[in-house]
């Protein structure tokens, strides 16, 4: 028995960290969007037990430290169904540790894939609940589309879809650690917050430009040293005619929305000369389950 599923990357149209919670996590208010850029996940089931994982990125762990392997283990454990041997092959394209929930999307794809393959018929709510056991972004990655994420990032409300547009995503050559970015926020008074309500209003009216000028991520305020390269990439994207640009997640990837494909393509070709992990894609606003 086998199945092929996609693991679509996400972007944050806005990201606000409201406050630190007693659990150590942070209360978030985030507008999410899914893009066509994805990893391919192949899952096969045979007799036996355990999870076998392989990916085309040699530096990724393939044992239980990989969230995709964890997802398979959680699925069998939580449902209390007899274990099978799960072989997962992931062809990765989505940059790792880049603010695009690549790992969370892989885990969500495994949950969706196993649900289909085993005919377990779990509702989207139950799949999201299982996702919540794996990480804050996994519930969103189960359902995808344009959505507002609150709480730890795991309370999801579907929103009116972002109008179709062209998107350039560019990952600078440094990485940041998500917990470090949250610690930096804790040490600072957040000076600027995104106009989340304005984005929700613009989405409800289907106004791409009004969303694009409001793209904002509070983590951009705590970038330092060479991380400020994020601003240079944003400026380049805006110079090429983007309607708006922002960093996504805890960074460092930058993205920009365009209404004209030729402008997006020109920006993509320019940035690709310097940054290997540059992508030209589109949004994918419909729900995944
Ligand atoms: O939930 P997840 O394992 O993806 O979170 C990774 C890290 O990001 C957490 O250990 C925590 O440091 C931070 N985080 C947070 N508040 C959130 C989500 C994540 O502080 N809402």
Textual characterization of the structure:
The chain has 289 residues and is of the alpha+beta class. It is built from 9 helices and 11 strands. The protein has 2 domains: 2-158, Ribosomal Protein S5, domain 2 (2-Layer Sandwich), CATH 3.30.230.10; 166-282, GHMP kinase, C-terminal domain (Alpha-Beta Plaits, 2-Layer Sandwich). Helix content is 31%, strand content 28%. The strands form 2 sheets. Strands 1, 2, 3, 4, 5, 6 and 8 form a 7-stranded mixed sheet that branches. The chain has a 4-stranded antiparallel sheet with strand order 9-10-7-11. It is globular, with a radius of gyration of 19 Å. The two termini are 21 Å apart. The mean pLDDT is 96. Residues 25-26, 28, 135-137, 152-153, 178-179, 182 line the site of cytidine-5'-monophosphate (C5P).
List keywords for this structure.
289 residues; alpha+beta; Ribosomal Protein S5, domain 2; Alpha-Beta Plaits; seven-stranded mixed sheet; four-stranded antiparallel sheet; binds cytidine-5'-monophosphate
